[in-house]
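Long-time lurker, first post.

We've been arguing in lab meeting about whether coenzyme A would sit comfortably in this protein at all. Half the group thinks yes, half thinks no, and nobody has a model to point at. So I'm putting the question to the forum: if I give you the sequence and the SMILES, can you give me back a predicted structure of the complex? Inputs are below. Any interpretation is welcome too.
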Amino acid sequence: MNAIRLATPADAADIAAMSRDEIERGLPWSWTEHRVLGAIRHPDTNVAVIRDQGALVGFGIMAYRQEAAHLLLFSVHPSHRRKGVGTGLLRWLEVVAVTAGIERIVVECRRDNAAARNFYAESGYHEMAISKGYYGRSPGFTGHAEDAIRLEKWLHESPG
Ligand SMILES: CC(C)(COP(=O)(O)OP(=O)(O)OC[C@H]1O[C@@H](n2cnc3c(N)ncnc32)[C@H](O)[C@@H]1OP(=O)(O)O)[C@@H](O)C(=O)NCCC(=O)NCCS
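Top reply:
Settle the argument with this. Predicted structure of the protein with coenzyme A, as tokens:
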């Protein structure tokens, strides 16, 4: 497995495909290659990736704002789950946030995503609120809008 690194434009298509298949399934595909490219090029956003023999193993997209960072998108390929890859990627993004002087990270995940809720809880995130119908609000979407759980982590509470 390669080291975690910042994404380049060449990673965008694989990231978008993984978002469509592993995160946005059943919802309109919003993280297209074009949008991922925008995140890679955005000065206040980091897109971290990890690859193995050329294949995308996982990625995380974090937007660093003044008082909080927002983890926008995060996934590990099914073939590489439960091996600590997600924990490593999240730590990498958190270290950047600490270095930038950011105190808090916020993230949303689907309410029925038990794996992600457990993963974030294990990583020190606290569940703060339910956002009803958060996923699937895009115009023209006629499918089932899903609730989100909003989580946050205060970085100074759990150094390292
Ligand atoms: C959530 C996700 C990122 C976890 O990635 P991962 O690389 O498997 O996570 P790790 O191996 O670092 O797991 C760390 C801990 O989180 C918890 N965890 C991870 N996956 C879990 C699962 N499926 N069920 C229960 N707990 C889980 C466990 O406590 C795990 O430790 P353990 O394996 O020693 O028991 C991955 O399952 C994923 O990509 N899911 C699909 C996309 C998604 O839901 N993204 C997040 C919302 S945007």
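For your lab meeting: Helices lie at 12-23, 33-41, 85-99, 114-122. The CA atoms of residues 112 and 147 lie 8 Å apart. Whichever side wins, do check it experimentally.
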